Amino acid sequence: MIYFTSKQCDPGQPRKRVACAVALLLFFSLRLARAEPEVNSATEYYDVSADTLGTLLLVLQSEVPERPGGKTFHGYTRADVNWHWQLAQAGSRCRVQQARAIVNIQTTLPRLYWTTPGSEVERVWQQWMPALARHEQQHANNAIHVARRGEHRLLGLPPQASCEAMNAQAQRMASQLHDELRKIDRDYDNDTRHGETEGATLQSYLPRRPRQGQRAVE
């Protein structure tokens, strides 16, 4: 920790002013580098049993507990980011003295409770599940990255004439960060087609049905 006194930053001493400016820059750089969100994560599993791939898909559709917007996703990550800040009045200006983010992550994933040993279900599950878990982890990582970015941005907000104005600016920043996280997650799912390009969708491992008028490969 670096401490400053009024004598060290005496505006009447040019050398002291330069030294103070450099020290302040180092001090705030260290503060920003140390900013790290608190992350609380938990994973909830729902059990499924199946002895064929067709049955597995039906069971998953039936047992999945998370249905955001009425849609069915075999894996789902809910990440809530809350920013907390402390303001400090210095003379006629108010600034953000401390900023801290808390990230609460709840991931829901399926768990294979039973299948016939050596079955096609077991083979597909061993390929699909790690890819699905990685996809959901990326959603969690998105929240952590935005939380970390938010701490830096809050600490870097310009001081205001009053703490009321400073608090309003910090709240606007927090709202903007929430919007950014939603966009990052939405773009990620659009780019990967909800994990399809990463092998995170079960349908990627199922035999494709022939189109109408098209024969299946024999």
* Helix-residue proportion: 40-55%
**Tally of structural domains:** 2
Radius of gyration: 26 Å
Q: Count the strands? A: 3
| Distance between the ends | 72 Å
Secondary structure layout:
Blueprint: H1 14-34, E1 38-49, H2 53-63, E2 76-90, E3 93-114, H3 120-155, H4 163-192
Parallel strand pairs: 1-3
Antiparallel strand pairs: 2-3
Helix pairs in contact: 3-4
Task: Tell me what the structure shows.
The protein is an alpha+beta fold and 218 residues long. It folds into 2 domains: 1-30, no CATH class; 35-205, no CATH class. Helices cover 45% and strands 22% of the residues. The protein contains 4 helices and 3 strands, in the order αβαββαα. It has helices at residues 14-34, 53-63, 120-155, 163-192; strands at 38-49, 76-90, 93-114. Strands 1-3-2 form a 3-stranded mixed sheet. A hairpin with a 2-residue loop joins strand 2 and strand 3.
Describe the structure using short key phrases:
218 residues, alpha+beta, 4 helices, 3 strands, 45% helix, elongated, disordered N terminus, disordered C terminus
In short:
With about 220 residues, the protein is of the alpha+beta class. It has four helices and three strands.
